[in-house]
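Running low. Invent one:
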Amino acid sequence: MGFYRNCLMLAGCLLSALSFLGSGVVAASELPPNVVIMMADDMGLGDTSAYQDLNGNSDESQILTPNMERLARLGVRMTDAHTPSSRCSPTRYGLITGRYPWRNRLKHWVLFGAQGDPMIERDRPTIATQLQDFGYHTGMVGKWHVGLRFRKSDDHPADGWDDADLKFPLYDTPLDHGFDECIITSRSHGTSGPKSNTRQNTSEQTVGPGHIEGRTAIGATGNGKQLVESGPNAYILEDLGGRHSDHAIDFLNRHLKNTETAASPFFLYYACNSNHSPYTPVDSIDGQPVKGESRSVAGQKMGEREDFVYENDVALGRLIDYLENTPDPRRPGHSLVDNTLVIFTSDNGAEKNRDTATGRWRSNKGSCYEGGHRVPFIAACPAAGIGDGNDETPGLTNESLICLTDLMATIADLNEQSLSSIEDGAKGAEDSVSILPALRGEKLAPRPMFYNDHRQADDPAACAMRLDDPVVNGNRVDGKWKIFFDANLIRRGIPQPFELYDLAVDPYEQTNLINDVQLKELIAHLSSVAERHRNSGGHRLAEIASDQRVAFNWAQTPFIPESPGLTLVDLRERFQNEEHSTVSVEAEGVTAKFTAVPGSSNYPARFSVNPRGVGIEGGAFKQVDDGESIIVTFDKDVIVESVAIVAGNGVCGGFYQVGEGSPLAIYCVDADIDAKDQAGILSDIGLLKAGTPLRLDSHPHYGVEAPGQWRLESLTIRFLK
């Protein structure tokens, strides 16, 4: 009955412990481990026999994934692993940056369209830049889907797909975010290039750009958006599984054969297109048949979707075989597999809402119920104490709560390195917590964890937060508490709960306890925790943030609700009567300075207030427009919790910038900048050091989009402890 059902767990634990004691663990500081992260697309917890004992599938309905079972025997299987979102773009952002995706502009859904503006700014640390700093050679193959930017024929950044020239090197790719090499598809395989027999491959097609190597769309013909239709650069859906696997092995071979890299550890981010629809399994991978070869645990032949899931298993098996059969040049007498951290996981729950795909958990992809974000997570690295490397033992199982955002902190911990110093104003890995102790068999302490994108809500920008065994008014409340908040938490920073479950007794989320009067104090506590961790800018920032906040307001009807520790400062009259371009305001011991900067006009800049907020006189309108900007500084270190910008009858555009950091696109509380509604406060700007300017600018972000035309409604800061 599947992988773990027949295991003698006590004997397995004893064998694992004995093997570990004799394995000769090598300290990370002496020899940093290689790292491989392999992530499937839309693969649920029910889609692997490595979790059959948990997902409840029968032998007849359970797809057999022998290599996932094999990796679990070599290492550790995490049974409470989650993605930060129930969809792919935001989860990939979270894994790569160690930060919840809704702290970026994407409040729900995915990047849409052939371009999809980059979600990651140039100076944001990623798991790849971190490993480059640690001396790793970094590479990526497979699905990117956190944004690209093309170039126009004049070599400047393109506004979008329509003005992109595919013969020019792309302006922004994984190479700009820590990867030394990359061979990728831009997003889901069905929309990254033309599908045969369903879309015409023409100069005006709206899909593409096919395969990208580094900065090059290798299939570009020079005839508009048309791509080559045959040969090695052609985009063939049914070939992608084998192609990505070949590229992964090629990266490892190049690394080992190059004398400049062989002495260094490697990092490979291997993001499969399988098993996202359409189901296009490859015929074979490195001679191993795939199409038509999936089988149930009972030995029965399965369908096309299962073949596509099985493609992941075959690719994983090829990778493990390579690592087992290849000598490690840094550790004579050992193979690469001993000192390579191999992680297999998925980007969200299954795209199919059926038990055989999601297991017994409620719902699936696009939902904050467990089936939308609870995923497989299997890891092994014997030399680092993660499993014993013996595939004849059952391997370890750990029930600790973990999230894919935790990988940045975990890999830093594995290398005995520190994350960026947020106390000094640095950004990076704001929501990442090391799970290395859990991978080595320990139980992690409870901590809050968020999941977003809930299609069952009226507004899918809703989210859920999990916190186990919280202490409420000095008393521990046992349980695995999961509370749901409507979209106001993510869009406005205001917690409004509407569902509550105790997963300890109700793992399948059948009994909503939100109206249980006996849990009133618990609900208030969880709401307070959610507000603090949502609005502080990250779990790591929440540790140094106080409860004291100041909201500077210019709107006639402020949206900011009263709450403990919040001081609301009404600045409408002060700014309306101000003749100067700079206004200083003192509140609760901090002095804020607001400066109106003129744009292209010759008129002096001064502030202008209307019921929606503050703008600047001198441009085309009395809004912030025509190249105008507002610069804000403080005389103390503060956390900039949020900036509310209202477009009104204007345009949501422009950028914001902290000091000399990378600019990011402005989004507004009443207007969005993506295919779906991403409206909300400009949040999670982070710790602003005393004297460092925060610039809110109406200029186009890349110089090619529509300029901004908006007003500043409010700005909220939080003090440090």
